[in-house]
Design goal:
Layout lengths: L9 H10 L7 E2 H7 L6 H9 L18 E2 L14 H10 L12 H4 L6 H9 L6
Parallel strand pairs: 1-2
Helix pairs in contact: 1-3, 2-3
The structure holds a DNA duplex (13 and 13 nucleotides).
DNA sequence: ACAGTGACAACAT
DNA sequence: TATGTTGCCACTG
């Protein structure tokens, strides 16, 4: 646990949101950062997903659809990684998402609507806010 | 405590 | 459209 007591850390929040992305849809690092109230933390979102490779042995993180997160241009962003973006494209296609040769995805068709404020509250704080 | 790092994003060429 | 540059943020040793 990289956690400090009860406060859910940013990574966990990212994972919680990513888990909500339905099959056949995609979102972007920046959008997820926005949902969590940190519009400038897109990079940290990518870092959070990158950290999953070190936790692949932990079943608690095995169900995170990391492949559904791409960059703001609607393009797969891990082209230079050894694991290859090919895998990501392949998985997305198997989920019904059309990925072009240039690794582009049409946001008009596949962009996930995201979560509502109340749902974010629940993810971040564990329960509905009293308002 | 501090500097380095990275699966980003926005803007300039 | 394709690069390059700069600003950002959370996490790590």
């Amino acid at each position: 646990m990289t956690n400090s007591e009860n406060a859910p850390n940013f990574y966990e929040q990212v994972y919680a949101v990513v888990r909500r992305i339905p099959r056949g849809k995609v979102s972007s690092y920046g959008r997820i950062a926005n949902m969590l109230g940190r519009p400038r933390a897109a990079r940290a979102v990518g870092y959070a997903l990158n950290a999953l490779k070190d936790r692949k042995d932990d079943l608690a993180y095995a169900d995170i659809p990391w492949q559904r997160v791409i960059n703001s241009q609607g393009r797969i962003s891990i082209i230079n990684r050894e694991n290859s973006a090919h895998d990501q494209a392949t998985i997305l296609r198997s989920e019904g998402v059309s990925v072009s040769e240039t690794l582009h995805v049409d946001f008009d068709k596949y962009l996930w609507g995201g979560l509502h404020w109340a749902e974010i509250e629940e993810l971040v704080y564990g329960r509905s806010s009293p308002l």
